[in-house]
Amino acid sequence: MSQPQVFYDDFDLGPHLSSSYMSGAFANILYGIARFSGARTLVEVGVWKGLTATLLAQAARFNGGHAWGVDVGEFETEARQRVERMGLSEHWTYLTCDSAQAGQHWEHGPINFLMIDAGHGYESVAADIQAWIPHVAPGAYIFFHDYNLTTGVWRAVNEFLEENGDEYTRSMKFCWEHGAMVVRRKAVGE
Ligand SMILES: C[S@@+](CC[C@H](N)C(=O)[O-])C[C@H]1O[C@@H](n2cnc3c(N)ncnc32)[C@H](O)[C@@H]1O
C-alpha cells in the first residue's frame, strides 16, 4: 500500500529527503504540523545529522520564526552543513548541550512546536519531558519520535499523558519510521 502524500507549494521536499532515511510521508507530516500550526518558536531535542532540522528550519522560515536544535554535538558539523546547504542557517540555531539541561535553562520564550528525539531510554525521555514541557505554549504541538521503537519512549510518553490528560491530548499517532506520537497542549479556553 502506498503511503499518503501531501504536496505543498512551499518547497520541494526532494533535497530534504535525498541521502536521508526519511520517507516523503514522514517528512510531510512532520513539516505539515510544524508549518501549518503556524509555529514560530520550534525546538528539536536530538538533532543527529540535521535531517529533520532542515524541515523545522524551513517551517520557521515560512512562519516568520526561528528553530533551535539541541544535541550533545554528535554529527554537529554534518548537521550545520546540511542546514547551510539548504540556505536555512539564519532560521536555525544549534545548541551544543545536554537536552535536559538546555530545557532547564531555556530563555527564548514559549515553544510552539517541540520535537523530542534525543536519548531514547525511559529516564532520558522522562527527563526531557520534565525539562521542556514547562516551556510549551498553549495550543502547541509536541512530536515524540520513535514512539514505537523503544519501550522507554513509549512508557515515558504514556505516563506523561496519563498524568496530564486534562491539559495535553493525543493528536495523532503513526507507525512507520519507528512511529511517532503527536500531542497537543490545549489552547486557552479549550
Ligand atoms: C535519533 S537521533 C536524532 C535524529 C533527528 N531528530 C532526526 O530525525 O534526524 C538522537 C540524537 O540525540 C542526541 N542525544 C542523545 N542523548 C542526548 C542528550 N542527553 N542531550 C542532547 N542530545 C542527546 C544524540 O547525540 C543524537 O544525535
What does this 3D model show about the protein?
With about 190 residues, this protein is of the alpha/beta class. It has one domain: Vaccinia Virus protein VP39 (Rossmann fold), CATH 3.40.50.150. Helix content is about 35%, strand content about 25%. It contains seven helices and seven strands, in the order ααβαβαβαβαβαββ. It has helices spanning about 15, 25-35, 50-65, 75-85, 100-105, 120-130, 150-165, and strands spanning about 40-45, 65-70, 90-95, 110-115, 135-145, 170-175, 180-185. The chain has a seven-stranded mixed sheet with strand order 3-2-1-4-5-7-6, with helices on both faces. The longest helix has 13 residues, at about 25-35. The model is unreliable at about 5 (pLDDT under 50). It binds S-adenosylmethionine. S-adenosylmethionine binds next to helix 3 and strand 2.
Please give the CATH class.
Alpha Beta
Number of discrete domains: 1
The hetero molecules present are: S-adenosylmethionine
Largest sheet: 7 strands, mixed
Model regions low in confidence, pLDDT < 50 over at least 5 residues? 3-7
Q: Encode the helix/strand succession as letters.
A: HHEHEHEHEHEHEE
Structural class, by secondary structure, is alpha/beta
First-to-last CA distance: 37 Å
Q: What's the count of strands?
A: 7
